[in-house]
Amino acid sequence: MFDFKYQLKILPDRPGVYLMKNSLGEIIYVGKAKILKNRVRQYFQSSKNHSEKVKAMVKNIAEFEYIVTDSEMEALILECNLIKKYRPRYNILLKDDKHYPFIKVTINEDFPRIIMTRMKVKDGTKYFGPYPEVSAVHETLDLIKKIFPIRSCKMAIKEGQKKVRPCLNYYIKRCNAPCAGLVGKEEYSIMIKNILSLLSGRDVEIINDLKKKMNKASEELEFEKAAAYRDKINACEKILEKQKIIGSNFQDEDFINVFSDEKDSCVQIFFVRAGKIIGREHFTFDNTSGQSSEEIISEFIKEFYGGTAYIPKDIYVPCVNDVELLQDWLSMKRGSKVNIKIPQKGEKKDLLDMVGRNSKIMLEQFKLKLLSDKRNNTAVVEKLAEFLKLDDIPHRIEAYDISNIQGVDSVGSMIVFEDGKAKNSDYRRFKINSVKGANDYESMREILTRRFRHGLEEVRAIAESKISLSAGKFCVFPDLILMDGGKGQINIALEVLKEFNIDIPVCGMVKDDRHNTRGIIYNNEELNLKGNSDIMHFVTRVQDEVHRFAITYHRSLRDKRVLHSVLDDIPDIGAARRKELLKAFGSIENIKKATYEELIKTPSISKKAAESIIQYFKRTSQSTMHNN
């Protein structure tokens, strides 16, 4: 048993990192402290000043551990690494690491290329960005290639080297073939200089030059050439108009602000590169009531820049905790000085205020969408209850599916919808242990038995105060079960429920010949669904989701080579014969349908082996009919 009083008493007066764990030993929060003793003790003192998130977290803390470091900087670095590793539920977490794309011009080559990359390194090349959206990078690259016949190959081309035959790009006028010696280094470098000017947005001389050439071609009645110049001018103007000039210092800067209501928060970040706003991103965080803006922004900076590939020179915020520590950490990551600034007036303050207003708008839009989705989801569940004539509204729905591809061992999946919305945290996957081969019915029996046995065990443990309700993974039972299949699957589920003395309605989701959702089987009756009805869309969504979840698990296991073919279970069929069978028939289903004469024509398949195959599939077919 974990002794809180003793552990709190012996906490050191040193900087370090602490890890909070729940009753299952899962790390639910990682934090850093300048003085471990003071910081950790605060969690277990009076909760009046605690935020709602901290109160919820403290209720789930069963034990904690800590790591002492030599400095607060070491603690900060370790904290960021541990958060990335464990993804604790009570830390502010972003969806993923933000390695934004750059446009890279390889000016260290004799004949430079322009490519997209997600890593910025000191390699003597020129970078532009980062760009928040990869589509913007692709569009810009496509526009540049329309204007300039720049090479896109990966060849190492040097001036004066042996000439090679040009590729197709030369003949369609997308490259001027430096590999074939058709353009010199000096002429090519002029084109690169124009591209750099265009990407920096500081020089529109190239557009004026193109306009002169267009007018000249038009005067000489070369209208096709004039149209080509016109298209290039439009492409140049599109690149230049992508960004809004907001300053004249041409520095790389990020502007971060936050808006919080009584429950949630939205952090918005604007990216300014070379004096232009090139994009923005927003991140919404749930249950931040009681957390200060300083705390939210500090946590956001650690999480965001801990994963991003690029850190600008200046970061503007309205407020922040540990500003000097964060500056030192960011400077260390960037390799040069980084400033976190709090502007009081002027254009920087105006832009930061605009970011704050956008944060408010984003949070309000998020809440409106959430409310609208909730109403729609609740409405469809109510309609489903009415359609099936259920006694109660099925607030929690669990759906099950079995996956096996070409006779490979089965795997099972369970997905959960609560009030019409997918609850990914309750999804569960099952690797079949007791069933050999592709037997969907017995595989389904196993996963349902395991699910409800574990559920009843957790219910008893909660009743005896051995675990908390939040620690249980199976203790909450569904109001409705949806099986991806027909009467056979339904009967298996009903048998398992009866064995555990549990009463839950069970439906089957059936498909037509085109594998589209056709209807629901309930109480041995197939109920057809109208094509465009809300219920049809919902059932289709559930069926597609449970199938997707099962397939992805199956593929992940197959990639790890832990599954075996159903052919392994057939006597007299070894690796060589299995390979020949799959080569000849293409799939397990075709082997199953094959006649004795077709089987013995297969190389290495003897009469005895053919008879063994036929007898095996005959037995499995009879077993399936029995379950139906």
TrEMBL record:
InterPro entries annotated for this entry? DisA/LigA_HHH (IPR041663), GIY-YIG_endonuc (IPR000305), GIY-YIG_endonuc_sf (IPR035901), GIY-YIG_UvrC_Cho (IPR047296), RuvA_2-like (IPR010994), UVR_dom (IPR001943), UVR_dom_sf (IPR036876), UvrABC_protein_C (IPR050066)
Q: Name one Pfam family in it.
A: UVR
Q: Does the keyword Cytoplasm apply?
A: yes
GIY-YIG domain residues are 13-92
> Which SMART domains does the protein's record reference?
GIYc (SM00465)
Subcellular localization: Cytoplasm
**Classification via CDD domains:** GIY-YIG_UvrC_Cho
User: Keyword Transcription regulation, does the record have it?
Assistant: no
UvrC family homology region profile domain boundaries: 255-497
Family note: Belongs to the UvrC family.
What is this protein's function per UniProt? The UvrABC repair system catalyzes the recognition and processing of DNA lesions. UvrC both incises the 5' and 3' sides of the lesion. The N-terminal half is responsible for the 3' incision and the C-terminal half is responsible for the 5' incision.
Recorded protein name is UvrABC system protein C
Q: Which organism is it from?
A: Clostridium neuense
